[in-house]
Every structure is written in structure tokens, then in C-alpha cells.
Specification:
CATH class of the largest domain: Mainly Beta
CATH topology of the largest domain: Pectate Lyase C-like
CATH architecture of the largest domain: 3 Solenoid
Number of strands: 16
Structural class: alpha/beta
Shape: globular
Number of helices: 10
Strand content: 25-35%
Radius of gyration: 29 Å
Number of domains: 2
Helix content: 10-25%
């Protein structure tokens, strides 16, 4: 909040002080403590809205030229502003807040956590970076050897970059769910494994997916207990991650998948999380998720013969869809739907002979809708 300063009175010469007008008790009573009427050069200055704004120091929104230190920003320090990280070496960097955009330039051997970014994160000329990132757009240029645990709403892009490895975002701190909401990001729209290489080289692979069991904290450690970030309760346990852990583009273990769709309601997100817990506890695997709005014509195209019963359910907001995989998953999902979610507005594949078509129809539609 900005500070307000009143204008100091100029010291008058003795002659002027002797000639200063006096006021009667009646005038004082009628005007309170106001300065007497007349030509008054001491009138308080007007205050405009731009005078009341908190002054922004650009240095608060950048980290530059640091080496061998633990730095970053605590929750509430950025509040959706842009942020810049440049020329840092062997640093642990934690940005536990949401931001507008972040650029990272000329950094080497750093471990980085970036809270939800409403727009883009752009790494340029960086090397040996390990990071956890949630963003709308992810892009690298002229980078080497990066290991990224990613949540990205659009297709991640690498350009003139080599040795890039990607895994699914797995992270938690108490304010993270609110930061996702403030950044306008859905925890269910994560295209972490759908990488587009803008400059592919024939016969070479510039990027790959990390092993499924890669522990995040082995790559990006939790804040040191002696650092300024010790108060932030961090977890990289997949079961606590704000973003659901998905298999992504890795080879599926089974040919049987099931489509499970929740229609908008008061507890849609909680229901989706509950389903993931129930299904994965039975040994099945979450492949992918999407949160997307649908129109009546979309419902007819995606759900076909079931469309008539579902059309009225799309009017209250976006749907959340999940693809579960494993032998027997369709029957298991249908049992869970009837036992756990009775009375909830949902769609679940009817049988394993048509379930693959259900999955393809929905996620092809969702990808087109999101421009993927």
C-alpha cells in the first residue's frame, strides 16, 4: 500500500508572521481546523489514483548474476507480475508464487521451481538445468541438458535445444492450488509429454521422456532448512501433487482403456481426484486428463448414441475427462461409478469393445478444441 505524505509548511519570515491574519473563535468554530479563506498557497495538494499506487521496484522482479546461493520469492511476493532470471550459476531458485511470464536466460547448473505462470516461460541459452514448471506455454531455445517436470496447457516447444528430458509435474505447497486458479490454469490440462521440436535433426533425438519413477526431489531438492524458504511446506509425493500424475505419451501397458467424464457441478474437481485415487489403488493407470467446454453439437459428435441424455448437462461449465488404462479397467470404472458416484452427472464407457473409440472421440475433440 502506498504511503501518503502531507505537504510541509514553509517557514515564514518574522515580518510575514507578524502580518499573518488571525481568526476569531467563531471563524474557528465554523471552519474547524481549516486554513482561513483567501489566497492560500498552503492548500493541501490533490491526490490522484496514480499517486496512491505502490511503487514497483524492477529489482524485486528479477534475479541477476547470482552464484552458489538459494534465492527466489515467497508466496504473495509476485502476485501475477512478470519475472526475469538471468546469468545465475549453481543456484537453487524457488518461485513459490504465480506470475504473468518468466524468462530465464544464460543460466548454468541451476535447480529451479516455478509456480503457475499465466502466460509463457522461455528458457534461452541455458545449460544443465533441473526444474519444476507449471505454465500456459513452455519454450526453450539454444538450451542443453534440461530435465523438466512439466505442467503445460499447450504443446511444449523446443528450438535448437538438445538433451532435453521431460516428466510429469509432481509438486505441492499449500498455496499452489490457489496459484493455479489465479494463473487461469487447469490442473487437468497437462500436455507435458507432447513435445514439438521446432528444429529436428535427422537421425537424432533432441528430447526424451524421463523414467516414470523419477523422484522429483532427487533433481530439484526441497529448500534448505537454513534458507528463507524453510517455512514453505513442500512435497513431491505424487499422491499429494496438485496436478494428477499421468503416463502421457509413454507406451500403454494394456490395450484396454476407459473414458470417464464428469459434468460440471459443485464437486467436479474433487470427484475427479477421488476417481483417480480409487482407480489407481486398484492398480490401473491414469493416461491423460482434459478439462474443456462443450457445445450441444460437440456432445453429439463425441458421445453419439448417448448424446441425448448428456446434452443438458454441459450448460453449467466445462467437463473433466480421464483416460484410465489396464486389463479389466472398464468393468472396474463402471463399478466405481455405481458404488462411489451414484447420483453424480457422469459418463463412463459401456464396454471394452467400444471404450477405445470413446477415448479417441473425446480426446481428439479436446485436442482440436485446444489447438493441439
Amino acid at each position: 500500500m502506498g504511503c501518503f505524505f502531507s505537504k510541509k509548511s514553509k517557514r515564514k519570515s518574522p515580518e510575514k508572521e507578524e502580518r499573518a491574519p488571525t481568526t476569531t473563535s467563531a471563524e474557528t468554530a465554523s471552519t474547524g481546523n481549516a486554513v482561513p479563506l483567501g489566497n492560500n498557497s498552503e492548500e493541501a495538494p490533490k491526490q490522484y489514483s496514480w499517486d496512491k499506487r505502490e511503487k514497483v521496484d524492477p529489482k524485486d522482479y528479477m534475479l541477476t548474476g547470482l552464484k552458489d546461493v538459494t534465492v527466489g520469492r515467497l508466496p504473495g511476493k509476485l502476485n501475477g507480475q512478470q519475472f526475469v532470471i538471468q546469468e545465475c550459476e549453481n543456484c537453487n531458485i524457488y518461485v513459490f508464487d504465480h506470475s504473468a511470464t518468466i524468462t530465464i536466460d544464460d543460466c548454468v547448473n541451476c535447480r529451479i521451481v516455478l509456480g503457475p505462470i499465466k502466460g509463457s516461460v522461455f528458457f534461452r541459452d541455458c545449460k544443465d538445468i533441473k526444474c519444476v514448471v507449471a505454465c500456459q506455454q513452455f519454450r526453450t531455445r539454444d538450451c542443453k541438458k534440461m530435465e523438466v517436470f512439466l505442467c503445460c496447457a499447450t504443446q511444449p516447444i523446443i528450438e535448437s535445444s538438445t538433451g532435453m528430458k521431460f516428466g510429469c509435474f509432481q509438486y505441492y505447497y499449500p498455496e499452489l492450488a490457489f496459484h493455479f486458479k489465479d494463473a487461469g490454469l487447469s490442473i487437468f490440462n497437462n500436455n507435458w509429454s507432447n513435445i514439438h521440436d521446432f528444429t529436428p535433426v535427422s537421425g537424432e533425438t533432441n528430447w526424451s521422456l524421463m523414467p516414470e519413477d523419477s523422484p522429483v526431489l532427487d533433481f530439484v531438492p526441497a529448500p534448505d532448512p537454513e534458507s528463507d524458504f524453510k517455512s514453505v511446506r513442500v512435497s513431491a509425493d505424487p499422491a499429494r501433487s496438485i496436478v494428477p500424475l499421468t503416463k502421457g505419451g509413454r507406451r500403454k501397458d494394456s490395450e484396454e482403456s476407459c473414458l470417464f467424464v464428469f459434468f460440471a457441478g459443485e464437486y467436479t474437481t474433487a470427484n475427479a481426484r477421488k476417481l483417480i485415487d480409487e482407480v489407481t489403488a486398484k492398480g490401473f493407470v491414469l493416461i491423460q486428463t482434459k478439462e474443456v467446454s462443450m457445445r450441444p453439437e460437440d456432445v453429439k459428435r463425441v458421445f453419439q448414441s448417448d448424446a441425448d441424455d448428456l446434452t443438458e448437462w454441459i450448460t453449467k461449465g466445462p467437463v473433466i475427462a480421464l483416460e484410465m488404462n489396464g486389463d479389466g479397467v472398464v468393468e472396474a470404472c463402471r463399478n466405481i461409478a455405481s458404488e462411489v458416484f451414484s447420483g453424480t452427472k457422469l459418463f463412463v464407457s459401456d464396454n471394452k469393445n467400444t471404450s477405445s473409440r470413446d477415448v479417441d472421440n473425446f480426446f481428439n475433440f479436446a485436442d482440436m478444441q485446444m489447438g493441439l
